[in-house]
Amino acid sequence: MAPRHSGLQKDVLALYRRALRMVHSKPSAVRENFDLFVRYTFRTRASSVSPRDVAAIEHLLRHGRRQVEIYEDSKVRNCFVSREMMEWGQQHGGRTSRITHPA
Amino acid sequence: MSFLRLAARSLPRSGALLAPRTATAIPQFRGRVFQSAFFSAEAGLSKGDITARVIDVLKGFEKVSPEKLTETSRFSEDLGLDSLDAVEVVMAVEEEFAIEIPDEEADEIKTVQQGTSLRCVTATSNSSYCSAIEYIAKTPEAK
């Protein structure tokens, strides 16, 4: 059994979950952009700080929460995807297929 | 004599009162029985079915190698997923079964098996996917 997560880890995972929910709320045509943006941002920022640097992680969390709040607005219709993100996305594929069941 | 008349008058009235009550009580009771019967039929999402669907969801992830994937695989140890991936998996399972798993429970899911057993346990507003056990007991909105 993996060790339990700390409070800070839980906060990060909760933010990630919230960000992914935000992605699902976007129209399917642009969802891919948001998805890539969220995954790229989390991955690169997570590897940019040391797991022991609590102050830095807290800063990123605050920053991330504000950003997600802005993106959650339905008026945000699309999201910029840089070339870097696209390259990263090609190396770090997420889900390749989505199963669709008839409702 | 007057008290007799009173008694006679009260009898049919009480009978009239009783009759509709029983009349309405019976269909209500029947309705409930049928409802629960339909409901239990609908709720029967078999364990094998759930497992197959969860595994299908996991197959959709590029990081997961299909040959390692079994019912008992653990996300981090066997499948090489980190905690962020695990969140993605749980979200995908949520999407697949049209449910929403609360954060505390989602954090606890670390194996495929657990994912499926939670599936058995989770009741939703979308009653067609509901199956039994303890989660329902804990969830007042579960129907």
UniProtKB/TrEMBL annotation, chain A:
A Pfam family cross-referenced in the UniProt record is Complex1_LYR
PANTHER family from the UniProt entry? LYR MOTIF-CONTAINING PROTEIN 2 (PTHR13675), SUCCINATE DEHYDROGENASE ASSEMBLY FACTOR 1, MITOCHONDRIAL (PTHR13675:SF1)
Q: According to its UniProt record, where is this protein located?
A: Mitochondrion matrix
Q: What is this protein called?
A: Complex 1 LYR protein domain-containing protein
The domain of life for this entry's organism is: Eukaryota
Family classification: Belongs to the complex I LYR family. SDHAF1 subfamily.
- Domain Complex 1 LYR protein: residue ranges: 11-69
Q: What species is this protein from?
A: Rhodofomes roseus
Q: Which keywords accompany this UniProt record?
A: Chaperone, Mitochondrion
From TrEMBL, chain B:
Subcellular location(s) of the protein: Mitochondrion
Instruction: Tell me the Pfam families matching this sequence.
Output: PP-binding
- Highest rank taxon of the organism: Eukaryota
Annotated Gene3D superfamilies: ACP-like
InterPro entries membership: ACP, ACP-like_sf, PP-bd_ACP, Ppantetheine_attach_site
The residue ranges of the Carrier domain are: 48-123
Q: Cross-referenced SUPFAM superfamilies, in alphabetical order?
A: ACP-like (SSF47336)
Q: Which UniProt keywords apply?
A: Electron transport, Fatty acid biosynthesis, Fatty acid metabolism, Lipid biosynthesis, Lipid metabolism, Mitochondrion, Phosphopantetheine, Phosphoprotein, Transit peptide, Transport
PANTHER family with a match to the protein in the record: ACYL CARRIER PROTEIN, ACYL CARRIER PROTEIN, MITOCHONDRIAL
Q: Which NCBIfam families match?
A: acyl_carrier, PRK00982.1-2
What is the role of this chain?
A: Carrier of the growing fatty acid chain in fatty acid biosynthesis.
Q: Which family does it belong to?
A: Belongs to the acyl carrier protein (ACP) family.
Which HAMAP family does the entry link to? Acyl_carrier
- This chain belongs to the protein called Acyl carrier protein
Q: What organism is listed for this UniProt entry?
A: Rhodofomes roseus
